[in-house]
Batch of 4 targets.
Target 1
Amino acid sequence: MRWIKYWVIGIILVLGIYAASMYFFVEESKSFRVEKEINYPIEKVFPQFNNLQNFYRWNSYFSSSKTMHADFYSPYEGQGSAMTFWDDKTGKTGELFIRYQNLNSTLKYQLFEGKNSNPTLINLKFSKVSPTRTKIIWFVHTPKQGLLNRSLNLFTEDTFVADLDRSIAGLGNILSNKVDRDNLFANIKYDTVMVEEQEGQLLLGVNVSTKNGKDALLRNIALNHNKVYNYMTTDLAKRDDEIGLPVMVTASNNFKDKEVSYFYGIPVSKRQSVSDNNFSFRTINNSRNYVMYFKGNFEARTGAIKQLLLKAKKDTMRNGDLLQTFIEPPVSGEEVNMKISLPVYR
């Protein structure tokens, strides 16, 4: 029985040393400041924070789990908005409130986790670095912890910063698609040959071969658009501002052939596991492109393609595959609105 006595005394000593070290060396709550900058204008960034439905989609605290769920409460945006969240797998639960808003300047959150009645206070300050760059500063104050749980404060800041880095990357992906689309729609000049620098893209889509008869190609494209879009939004749970505009990749001169082979895909930010073998990834490299925007009958787009090929020949440039980006989703029997790009190089 003596060893039991020693064992109990040893446990008491360990707990005593632990409690004393927590009391003297670890704060009962923790306050810290984190500063980040993001390459998007403040009027685009702020709505991703003051609308909790937007915030939930890119913030790694929520989006890293596939079993996380949330309910949102009116007014849905700005001061007074709120959400509850729960994770069926991990058991994580909580509530998030926006207690104060100064538009494009300041937000104050309260985050309640589990059964803790004391919230984590998160204040955010937004400032314009330039017309296209925003600084965000997080001021975080954690709730008081009892002696036995105070060791959590040793890791709070590191965990928060790591989670924040992943979140900012997710926010950047969403804003990239939103801003790129806004800029595209604002600067369209139809039926004019232009030169653009094309950033690389990762497409997820399908390889197709089909007849190139009258209306047959557009019908087939519309069918495959729905197939790819539905897979992205239903099976992969992507939202419209998480994906780019759909792109059809073909050989530059096969528009005259009786049968056309093409890859139809939608840009995504990164590769992920794809369970359906009908879908595959394709990489589009950075390139300099001759570009024309076209709106009208699908068959008439061949005139724009010929102009691009003629300019490449005149400039003694070699060219890659033709990229046809659908600004509006293709619909059988209707006019198309598209950007036709021909990558060129010496």
Target 2
Amino acid sequence: MTQATQSRSAARVAALVEGFDRSPAYAGLADSLVLLIGDGRIASDVRLPSERELTEALGVSRTTVTRAYQQLRDSGYAVARQGAGTFTRVPGGRARTRDRALTPDQLVGDHPDGIDLGCAAPAAPAGLAAAYAEAVAELPAYLGGHGYFPTGLPHLQAEVARGFEARGLPTEPDQVIITPGALSGAAIVAQALARRGDRVLVESPVYPNATLALRNAGGRLVGAPVDPEGWDLAAIGAQLRQVRPALAYLVPDFQNPTGHLMTDAQREEYAGHLRAAGTVAVVDESLQALALDGQEMPRPFAVHSPDAITIGSASKALWGGLRLGWVRAPRGLAEELTRARLSLDLGSPVLEQLVLARLLAGGPVLPDQLVRLREQRAALLEALTEQLPEWRWVRPGGGLAVWCTLPRGSAVALADAAERVGVGLTPGPLFAAEGGLDRFVRIPWTRPAEELRTAVARLAEAWQALPDTPVRPRPGRVLVA
């Protein structure tokens, strides 16, 4: 059966909307259906039961169902097809939930003054061009060889290892593999360790491109919810014991997209749950260097979980165009990961490795970059407080973005409306491992401060113009904010 002809029975829909607000009943029923469609529990292009069938299943008047379906159609969450019935839809189309951050011309449409808030990557810091110029002068020494370095330039491996040592994690250079970014690192790990059908625990919300590599390797993703306030480690431990996944992908440092920072005590507890389940952690540290409040950072997760594999990246701390990252493997695993890497590529560009080695010799991030990101974060959060006081968010201590909870309505609908006023916005469902999150949006502070203020003003305009269709929680539904 194709997606266009899928349907939901009246009994199933009645069970999903059980306990809807009945004052007035049609509005409560419509709001419950909007929540189900936005959360993905009723998918797009699914045929809803007929008005007569749902009337009987719910024990309400035919008028209640008729008016509820009409409200769904008016708000863009359903469409009537002549002779076929009423079908669900998502405002703006299913393409809205795809990651179009790297195609801002599509993300902001034809707006002459579009602002892209879909891509959480900073502009290059001062000093990067000089590092490239110095690296070009150094390059001729490598031109007489073949240029392939499957594990990386030795002195860059040493710089990355030194960074781990400085943070309390003893690391030898031969435990480091240089990759073309963190996503490539995730793909290498998946290629080496994920077998088709293996369960892989991933956080939800989660950066979707990283988990795509695990899914492409045949992993069966299992979502572990991360609340707006942080990790529920007791629940994660129970889930690990029940599912016993082969791998667990987690982002303990300024988690993308929530911005949470896992404490040392939490890391120790999480590591204990992983050991008990026999699960190997794949730890993404791409944002680890971006501590914006001057706080002392926790030790690397691998200190607490020695068999953990750590992935890092230069793209977030330095510049997205510097397409380099690394994998830090536990003793005895680096050779297996290198063999897996050779089935994907033969090494990373030499010039970029020379650049990164020079930069890392001075530290994991340039100080001017942190100053700029602090200013941009302050501008964004102040604008959100002033322009959108109903929205809720937890102030991140670092990273590149804030995760906002909408008090009502749909993030997908908001993203569609924002595009019309020239703002590219990424809605929550993109970050959902198993569906849902349609009441959240991620907003990065990676654009100049004035652009961020303008973008938030436009978002406020789009927000105020959205239909006032509050999401009404059903009894038994666990809210995350």
Target 3
Amino acid sequence: MGWFSKISRRGGAQTPRTADRAPQASAPPLSPSPPSRVRRVERAADFPRFQATASDQISSHPGDGTSAARMRFRAAFTPSQPVVDRRMFAGRGEVLTAMIRSIEDQRLHTVMYGVRGIGKTSMLHVLSQAARDARYIVTYVSCGASSNLDETFRAIASNIPLLFHSQYDPTTAEAETGATLKDLLGPNPVTVRVASDLLARIVGTRVLIILDEFDRCELPEFRHNIAELMKNLSDRSVRVQFIIAGVAANLDELVEHIPSIQRNVYALQVPPMGPGELRDLVRNGEELSGLTFTDDAVRAIVRAANGLPYIASLLSHHAGLAAIDSGESLVKIEDVKIAMAEALAEFNGRLSRRAQNHISESLDKQSIELLCALAETAQKSGGYFSFEVLRQKLSNPANVARCIEIIERLEAREILVQAVDDEFGRRHRFIEEGVPSYLWLLSEQSRLSVARERPVKA
């Protein structure tokens, strides 16, 4: 049976109040509750409820005995949120070491880029913890489409205590009352020069400024200002460094005005996680949740994740909940199949109606299978692929010709894929970023269905 015993949800008969009855030598048999009342009790018990309170405590209402297990499991796998608990952070040791050395030894700014779901924000949180342990001041800003220098810098300055300003003694009234650098800014919009001069006054500490989701910025002026600010800080050896992160296929896509700051920047393209790192991610979740994943289940998750920790966490999350729903503490390959169906439904819901309709109605099975072969590569490269990659993936010349014909037809109609000419030459990309992951999971679901109970090889 696993962990959980089932608790009956049926409401029992209610005992009449004795104060309302006349004394009798022997009480008559209890009358059952009216059928309508029993139905109301059953309906109340069956009505969907939250398993935990807003303070993360188990609800007091009768449940099915799985609430505690669900709470532990929800903390172990959080696909919709970045990893903030070091115990759940898997792999990336070499990448984090390289980042720390670039910050600490070379005093460089860092620009981190890669595809969505590769784990950039999780790495930023873990790096922030390590920096705070070393007594750095870390200020984190999540950028938006309308981000500008004035608003962003005021948010940054509000997290830097005035006591680290060279012209303010720690015993001054302003420093003792918790004033920040923001209090020194006037009403006029902040310029690059004003920001540079103020940060140049910092002494006695080091500051890391993290700008996450930088790809969302739509104002070229803001990107240009940040690049100029980074250059000014480096030229003046200021004790402040930027860490910029965002979705991009290359450095130029993320930061404007690159030539002037190349020597001041450590550019990091976050690589896909290796199979061993993904297995560690699942095993870390096992330790925190109390569930156990079979080897077949882990191999299936690792293969389907295709190097993306987000997908590994998403599949582990759904598979674990499927096992809990079945009253089991062992997550099996059948649970992973359920997880894939859940994940596919999520990805499909994020696609445009046009993409949904074309995949489900306009493409035949062979066409989808050929596009799935490209999705594996596109997942790891920002949605891009080339015909050269296509020829490597599909050894059959007939399949190559068929796939090229499909791609050119879709590009002509501006559906699913488009051609791109840039410094890398002629390339092609999926228009919607969710399409490669959807197609790849679709192919993995099909492969598992065909394989049935045969071992899944990573």
Target 4
Amino acid sequence: MKSGETFLRVRYKDTDQMGVAYYGNYFVWFEVGRTEFFRGLGMSYKELEQNNLYLPVIRASCQYKTPAHYDDLLKLVTRLSALSDVRLTFTYDIYREEKLLAFGETEHAFINQKGRPVVLRRQNPFLWRLLKDKVHESLESER
């Protein structure tokens, strides 16, 4: 799995009176993409937390090209684009059919339950190798 694909439908509650998806929902959809990305690796966010590993967002951005509307079926593509000892970065593309509607990025820190930074390579070598392989696959597929 070089990237994760998730399909979402824009719900009525996600829109304004014009039927346009509210801009803040894109960050919620990014979270869905990250969660499904980890599931695709064979683990859940819940399992990470049970192993005293948390991934708070420390930076987030989104660029909107074309609005999503009520009842649109969206495809969210999530990629792990960068990994360091204490951080990782995901990129996201949101499509309606083949049209790119928005793209974004979130950066996360690895911390423990006390909010202290964690060096993933030491705390969870298995996850470190798994994520490192995914970043390498993503870079290879871009060539």
